[in-house]
Amino acid sequence: MLTYPYTLTPDTNGTLLVLFPDIPEATSVGDDEHDAQVNALEALEAALEIYFDERRPIPLPRVANGSRYSVTLPAVVTSKVYLSNEMIRQGVRKAEMARRLGVHTPQVDRLLNLRHGSRIEQVEAALGKLGRRLDVSIV
Q1: Which one of 61, 89, 125, 127 is CB 3.0 to 4.6 Å from 4, fit for a cystine?
Q2: Backbone φ, ψ for residue 28 (5° rounding)
Q3: What torsion do the CA atoms of 121, 123, 125, 131 make, to the nearest 10 degrees?
Q4: Based on the domain organization, do 48 and 95 belong to the same domain?
Q5: Residue 29 phi, psi dihedral angles, 5° rounding
Q6: Where are the alpha helices (DSSP H) in the chain?
Q7: 72: which strand partners?
Q8: What DSSP designation does 64 have?
Q9: Which GO molecular function annotation, any one, does this entry have (predicted)?
Q10: Residue 48 DSSP SS3
Q11: pLDDT in tens, 65-102
């Protein structure tokens, strides 16, 4: 799964500012560290939606460099990030993916929607049509 480090900086109004060095569009605030962590995941997923909508490659997280704060994306969201990046890398549009999967384009739209509860098997099948394999492990 993908784990994105973030920084917490005290803001002038007593809140904590959340910034992701790898995804500059992802910003949030929190009243305390716990609140900031909850808001960090929401901010990260919202920023990733921008990348999906604009068909931009999503930067993968760099090494945490000692950052003590990070957010790990859920498995299905991580797999969708990899799918989107691979489609962009190979120049495969949604209509072409739908053709390869034998489905209608709205089904591919849902597959690339972070808020849709896709089954991991669907993402795995799409990656297979791109010549890639989803690998799951426990650490």
Answers
A1: 61
A2: -160, 180
A3: -140
A4: no
A5: -140, 165
A6: 33-53, 75-90, 94-101, 105-111, 120-129
A7: 3
A8: -
A9: DNA binding
A10: helix
A11: 667 899 999 999 999 999 999 999 999 999 999 999 99
